[in-house]
Amino acid sequence: MLEYYQNRLCVRGGWLYDDNGVMSFSNYKALTTRKQLLVLRKGCRNTPALVDFESMPTRFKIAIEERVGNVYEAAKENQLLKLLVPDQKAQDFYKTHRFGENNERSLPEDAQLEYYNNAIVMNAASAFFTDRRSRRKAIGNGNVTKLWEEISGFVNRLDREKYPHSLPGSSARLRQKQKQYTKNGYIEFVHGNYCNKNTEKLSAKAKYWILARWMNNIERVTSVEHLLNVYNNHASEMRLTKPDQVKEWKEIKSVNTLHRYLHSSGIEELWRAERYGELKTKERHLYQHTTLLPTMRDSLWYSDGTKLNLYYRDSEGKIATTSVYEVMDVYSEVFLGYSIGKNENYEMQHKAYKMALKFSEHKPYEIRFDGQGGHKKLQSNDFLSKLSRVAIRTQPHNGKSKTIESAFGRFQQQILKQEVFFTGQNITATADESRANNEFILANKHMLPTLEEAIAIYEKRRNEWNNAVHPKAKSGETRMEMYMQSCNENTTKISLMDMVDLFCISREHKVRVTAYGMQFKENKEKYNYMVYNGDMPDIDWVAA
Q1: Could you give all domains of the chain from N- to C-terminal order, each with its CATH number?
Q2: Which of 33, 79, 226, 489 is 20 to 30 A from 242 in CA distance terms?
Q3: How are beta strands 300-313 and 366-369 bridged, if at all?
Q4: Measured in Å, how far apart are the chain's first and last C-alpha atoms?
Q5: What is the pLDDT of residues 252-287, one digit of tens each?
Q6: pTM (2 decimals)?
Q7: Parallel, antiparallel or unpaired: strands 366-369 and 390-393
Q8: 506-538 residue pLDDT tens
Q9: Rounded distance, CA 252 to CA 258, Å?
């Protein structure tokens, strides 16, 4: 966000209006056009625009300092951050490094990450040290001691969560470490204990037992320390009952032995799904696709059902919840159509799509759905193939594969959360702010709305979402404005016959006409139909 250019302190233009609230994009354009902001470098692909800090109006300088603190210190730190570049050789070295009696052991993943970050931070520090231009900007002279004090300050201010290194904090020790690193290379950061030949070894039987016990969700061990005690008790029993297996069931003295084994390459993948669930395992170990989002309306619609996150009072006065099915345009994040019901089924989906098509007046080019609820019935009667050119079923229980789930989360957090009878976000949300105030709701359940009132409130909040500013709109357009102003020539305008073809459902079984007209049940609900001749039933039609 801050850097030196032509010996002047500059602010990146995009940072000024991108989610930081210093100024709006329209304000930025107006100020640069009127030369009230001095642009020293124009922006182009992969090169941000740079605005002279000293030329900016005072109110913007104050706003920037409120966000980053001392701008000159921030600019100095950025000089080191710019030198933090990936080092593939270091990554390969720590990943392939082997040690032990037969070189059969590899470094744990957390150690690999720590040593890799040590290497890239030290590479950046060395580059900063040898860069005379950076030295002059940092301290104004060539004093080596002061320069390493400056570098040490940069290293200490690095975000340890982003760069989890273990370099020393003092400038003298950091300088000494740099000399040793220059002499020894990547091996300098490998802890000596990893090369200790006397390190505890686990037998094959012990490894299988430890892995199975760690994965056991019935008799669950709570931590690696707990597992150590459980294993040693079992090993002691095995040594007493099976003297011929004494060597295979040795006592383990250090919890690090278990930790290194469980987190070693190829082992963690075996137990992680059992321990933390399939979704967490997929996010960590499987390849994640990156999807380019559409650039115009009706290119892609997502549909999904979820809990309607509002409590209401049912007919018996009890607290209840219900479900909602939404259809969303991905380009604009506009909720196009919805339906509310107790359980997600194909009727809810039909109603939501019908509302979406009436509003859009165009068929979408592509729709995506998760294949749960009543989608199989929609697929079997060709509804989805008639609705769009492409219909893709996404992976269920995988929120990352559906943009609508991200939108739902923000809708709940930013809009629905304002309601006092908000149920809290979905079960995967862990923050306290994502939870409902159940004590307050239980104490005031008589104040809860009816289902009809809850639906009306949801409709109001839904409209509020649609008419709120889109988070990525550079000119401050609302979601609805983005949708209405866009045009997609590749989509088909919906006609009356299309609506009939899509939403007139044929029953699997014929309906017999009796003296009472047509009577049948659908989803346990009874329907009665009669043909009238004016105000009277058409007797001739019934008799025919």
Answers
A1: 2-69 (no CATH), 88-195 (no CATH), 204-285 (no CATH), 300-485 (3.30.420.10), 513-543 (no CATH)
A2: 226
A3: parallel
A4: 81
A5: 988 888 888 888 767 887 888 888 777 666 666 565
A6: 0.50
A7: parallel
A8: 777 788 888 888 888 877 788 888 888 888 888
A9: 8
